[in-house]
Amino acid sequence: MSVAGPTGWVGRSIRRLEDPALIAGRGRFTADLPAAHRVRFVRSQHAAGRIANIATPPGVLVITAADLKDVKPIRPMLHKFDYVPIGQPVLATDRVRFVGEAIAAVVAADEAAAEDAADAVEVEIAPADAVIDAQAALADGAPRVHDEVAGNVIVKGLIETPEFAAARAGADRLVRVALRSGRQNATPLETRGGHAAYDPTSGRVTLTCATQTPHLTRTAIADLLGLPEAQLRVIAPDVGGGFGQKMSLPPEYVLLVWLARKLQSSVAWSEDRRENLIAAFHSRDQHITLEGGFDRDGKLVSLSADVTANIGAYSCFPTTCAVEPLMAMAELPGPYDVRGYRCSARGVLTHTCPMAPYRGVSRPVITCAIERLMDRAAASFGMEPSELRRRNLIDRFPYVSATGLTFDEASYIETMELAVKHIDLAQFRARQKQARNEVRYLGIGFCTFSERTGYGTPAFAARGMEITPGWETVEIVIDPSGFVEARIGSSPHGQGLRTTLAQIIADEIGVEPRLIRVVHGDTDRTPYGFGTFASRSLVIAGGASLLAARKVRVKLAKIAGHLLEASADDIVLEAGVAKVAGTDRALPIESLARAAYHQLHRFRDEIEPGIAESATYDPPGTFANACHVAIVEVDPETGRVTLEKFLAAEDAGRIINPMIVDGQIHGGIAQGIANALLEEIVYDATGNVLTTTLADFLPPTAREIPPIELHHLETMSEATITRAKGVGEGGAIGAPAAVLNAVNDAIAPFGAEINEMPATPRRIRAALRAAEKRP
Amino acid sequence: MSGKHDLVLSVNGRDYAVQVEPRRTLVDAIREDCGLTGTHIGCEHGVCGACTVLVDGAPVRSCLMFAVQAAGKAIRTVEGLATGDELSVLQRAFMEHHGLQCGFCTPGFLMLVTGVLEREPDIGDEELIDVLASNLCRCTGYQNIIKAVRAAAQELRTK
Ligand code: FES
Ligand code: FES
Questions:
Q1: Residues of chain B found within 8 Å of residue A22, distances taken between Cβ atoms
Q2: Which protein residue's CA is at the shortest distance from atom 3 of ligand 1?
Q3: Are residues A722 and A609 part of one domain?
Q4: Residue A22's closest chain B neighbor by CA?
Q5: In what order do the strands lie in the sheet with A571-574?
Q6: How many Å from the N-terminal Cα to the C-terminal Cα in chain B?
Q7: Which residue, of A256, A416, A699, B61, is most buried by count of CB atoms within 10 Å of its CB?
Q8: Pick from A711, A760, A763, A756: which is nearest to A284 by CA?
Q9: Which residue is closest to B92 within chain A, CA to CA?
Q10: Residue B131's domain is classified under what CATH number?
Q11: Distance (Å) from CA A62 to ligand 2 centroid
Q12: Within 13 A of A581's CA, how many CA atoms are on the CB side?
């Protein structure tokens, strides 16, 4: 265990290296760049139809599909699960398939002129029948969203373990739940946007854009335009949050690069919030039916599930739309031991905005489904929900699941016990009883779950993905002045990775984190990598940083050994200095660097010139875990839910920076609460989005998020070399189920139940009316 | 198109002579005509508060105000919070308490709270949450923003 190095930066809540610029208003976001031309997109107002005519105002540059004959459609690929590849044109060709699909791009000198010109473009569309809901899209005779996809099923999977049938038949009782999660939008506070600038000297284009995946963006756009990747540079500057929405390729960015080349100039597009809400990627929108078979003691023996995922009108690059249903199928049993498992999962095309990964990907919904099942089963056995979970959580490691996933060491039961203790369950039950006597309805909800993080190439290959974003590379360079720079393929946008990677590197090479510059988000300056998503960066780029830093350490020790006439084994690196252990002989790292570059003769050919080391890490994957608890009060008259308290006991392995970990969990929980109670993208029957402002979509404010209490355990799993597990998504995965279970606990005296998210006042009132029982 | 107006915007104590259409919003004028891009745009419809600046001391959503309406008034933006290299108490508190992640909402929160604490230094903890509920942050879940703001309010009171 060399992570906790001599100076011990790992494990400390040091202040973030990202903050000084951001706090002073000196961040550099995409929209801050000036451009010669501004682009505005004309978008479809119909969910389905044929483009009959596009009339453009005179004297305005308007680009349509007719201009883009040489540009390939976006067509991500998956090689399994009956996936049918479909293409998304950069601008709609003859057909439109969702409200908000880009039809034309208008170019003008400034934003206001571009908007005026876009308003003057007249698009005539012959409307066709649209399907908005996944169930409707599955019906016989439903309109096809793409001609090549019969029945609108673009991907389907089925799994059944040999133990399933007998286990189900032998179950003492069967418990069922049908859960629906509405549609969300990840809603980063900075919308998407891009700025493409042509360089007449080299003929290259630099695309600066709000992305989580600069290298993949370069690959994709170069492929679609038929360019060598070297002709394109992609920069992710400061990015105002992403949460998955900025990892999938927007067709708009392809157009910007094409246009910059055509005009040999600079062009920019800033998405407005309405565009973001209707046409940036959506998420969730799943329907799950579950049936659990339990033995007499409350042990889950069989689990069967049917998953229907509405994937919208197109398939996102690079993951494809299959990521949602397939992850549901693979991970639905969560942290519970069950051998008899059956699951069918489908991705269904509809005339709605395309879906893409959003913090948690499928797991907020599947976790909610199985956690509702656990609570229903607990009620059926007359047990505390935590007791039923105790009987089912896995506690032997490594554990190989029914779907073949290997669970590394974790603390499923321990985190739950910790949560039960700190929330003081017994005291709450007494308070709840007391409140009911006063006609007030309090509820408590638990959610125990796993968060699969940091998975490497084999995990993606198992899904049949054409692109398997499993590894990351980190290069560490010390320049002749002794300055340390780490260049990473990951692309953080709020996670504080510059700070945490610097902490890991600092412990290896004995240089303070603030003297280490972590460079990211520039394809010209960083090694190829996949970017930041799926709670992967600290695990994978962190592992690569550790490996590269170890190499640098070896080299520095070797150089110092030569210069100080000692064995490399006796060199200690600390506070920017190389020392011979137990002596006062020492040299600053600057001197080692100078010698490595400028005085090679001092090393008798035993040292390669310079100090530059690189390492790649491709881990097997790991599971972080947590238990979330919500306490709510429901007003039965109005259906209003007030969150009184939220508590999470979590285990993400070794914590590099506790302050940053807490921040990640807070943010995820807030988004999960929003998922459970507030946010929903609503379509009308014809496919128009009704929630086109933030005042309609309802992201929570400081008033809606209660105080969040956190507790930590640190299981040192062997599955990652830093012993750190990912933590970016857990908050969003666990919170919806904890809140929904708490709401259901609160309304249980009415005999009412709600299994739909968001659990809005209207839906809760409907559930109470349907129950018609007086407590 | 209606013609442009010549006006002077006073931002952070400096005068900017600009020429704007009547429909130009204050946030666009600050970002594009004055070149101060620390003020951000998150919605342009008055909900997120990322564009909050101070106009004659009061927090204002600069996407809902026209530039012409701000002529002759004292505008303050995030770029004016620090004195030279010395950050304001509130800025420091945000860093110490990890009140920012992506940092996109941060200028808006800083201006909102700066304006409120200048006018009501004794504001209570609960009322502060109502104030903070004016703006949106998508990253932090507000926990550390609340901590930072309470700490700054405390420090300013004891100063
Ligand atoms: S940009 Fe002004 S309130 Fe959102
Ligand atoms: S820190 Fe990202 S929106 Fe607040």
A1: 100, 103, 106
A2: B46
A3: no
A4: B103
A5: A571-574, A577-580, A586-588
A6: 52
A7: A256
A8: A756
A9: A23
A10: 1.10.150.120
A11: 35
A12: 9
Angle at A689 between CA A684 and CA A692, to 5 degrees: 140
If one counts the domains in chain B, the total is 2
Mean pLDDT over each residue of chain A, to the nearest integer: 96
State the ipTM, two decimals.
0.97
B93 and B56 housed in the same domain: no
Backbone angles phi, psi at A129, to 5 degrees: -65, 140
What integer is the mean pLDDT of A670-679? 98
* pLDDT tens digits along A610-661: 999 999 999 999 999 999 999 999 999 999 999 999 999 999 999 999 999 9
Domain count, chain A: 3
Domain interval for residue A626: 362-456+622-771
pLDDT of residue A459: 85
- CB pair distance less than 8 Å for B42 and A191: yes
> Quick one: pLDDT band at residue A4, thresholds 50, 70, 90?
very low
Residues of chain B with pLDDT under 70: 1-2
Q: Is residue A303 part of a domain?
A: no
| pLDDT at residue A1 greater than cutoff 50 | no
Residues with Cβ within 8 Å of residue A213, at least 6 apart in sequence:
A246, A247, A318, A491, A530, A531, A532, A533
Please check whether residue A150 touches B, CB under 8 A. no
| Residue A239, token pair as written in the block | 């990015």
Q: What is the CATH number of the domain that holds A62?
A: 3.90.1170.50
Same domain, B93 and B136: yes
Which of B30, B47, B109, B136 for mutating ligand 1's site (highest number of atoms within 8 Å of CB)? Answer: B47
Structure tokens given for A542: 């962190």
Which residues constitute the domain of residue B35? 5-80
The answer for B80, left when phi > 0, alpha when psi is -120 to 50, beta otherwise, is: alpha
**A85 contacts chain B (CB < 8 A):** no
**Of A592, A617, A642, the domain-final residue:** A617
**Is the minimum distance from the CB of B142 to ligand 2 under 6 angstroms?**
no
The contacts of residue B86 (CB under 8 Å, 6+ apart) are: none
Distance (Å) of CA A258 to CA A42, A198, A263, A524, A534: 17, 10, 9, 20, 30
Q: CA-CA distance, A389 to A413, in Å (whole number)? A: 8
A751: its two tokens: 């005999």
Among B80, B98, B116, the domain-final residue is: B80
Same domain for A85 and A106, yes or no, is yes
Inter-chain CB proximity A112 and B23 less than 8 Å: yes
Residues of A in contact with B129 (CB under 8 A): 702-703
Q: Is the pLDDT of residue A345 over 50?
A: yes
| CA dist., res. A718 & res. A407, Å (int) | 11
For A663, the closest of B42, B136, B144 (CB atoms) is: B144
Both B71 and B96 in a single domain?
A: no
Q: What is the pLDDT of residue A536?
A: 87
pTM above 0.95, yes or no: yes
Does position A146 have pLDDT exceeding 70, yes or no? Answer: yes
> Within an 8 Å CB–CB cutoff, is residue B11 touching chain A?
no
Domain boundary among B50, B80, B110: B80
A488 vs B: CB within 8 A? no
